[in-house]
Amino acid sequence: MIRSASRSAVCLIVACALSTAMATAVATAASPKPTARSGLYDTRYCEILVVKGVLPKVTVAVWNTIGLNSCPAAAWNAFNAQTLTTQLHAAGVLLNGPRHWVIDAAADSRVGAITTFGVMKMREVANLRIATAAQLIQTPYKTLVVDRTNSWSWDRGRTVYELLSPSGAVYVMQSFSQIVDPTVRIGDLRRLGSRLKLPAGWSYRSRKVAKGLTLQSFGRATIVQDDLQNTYQLLPAALIG
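^ that's the sequence the OP posted. Answer follows.
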């Protein structure tokens, strides 16, 4: 059984999606059809990741507060991963948050159920299969390809924050994390590069997107996290400014 996995490892796998029966403390209802969501910039959110099964047949269900609430601190801090693991008859539960979006809008074709954990409503946004232990091993600045169909958008004139790899690849931040450092705020992101432990050849920058920016992925996306667990997605060459 997988009872303890690196939080950043699994968070990056899903990011960076409860299967089968729930405990009585968790109620599930049908979700309405999803629509594009706007006004996300600097919106706080949290995720609960539920790991079930035994390798090579492990599933990770990811539940997210997007569109439902802003992850109230009192409700979030009341969660205990081990207690949830027992209630849900899971191999493990990971609490991923709080985080803040640095995108303005998102669209996703997935129709997910809505579940209540304690007093907090959450939406199922992904349900992933993990076949090898290697998929649970992830270090900062190591890229990972995940199954994802999504569209992130930044408004015209918005400042975006990017990691540049030694090969010239550019990864744009989709969310910043308050897991490692709870004091981080959106205004700190311009100067974040001085805090990151960037590997040789990597760099961090911020820039304004004069005409706005839309990043779409169709089935696959390449993502990476920095050492503060902020999450980025690869930009196609045509979108690099």
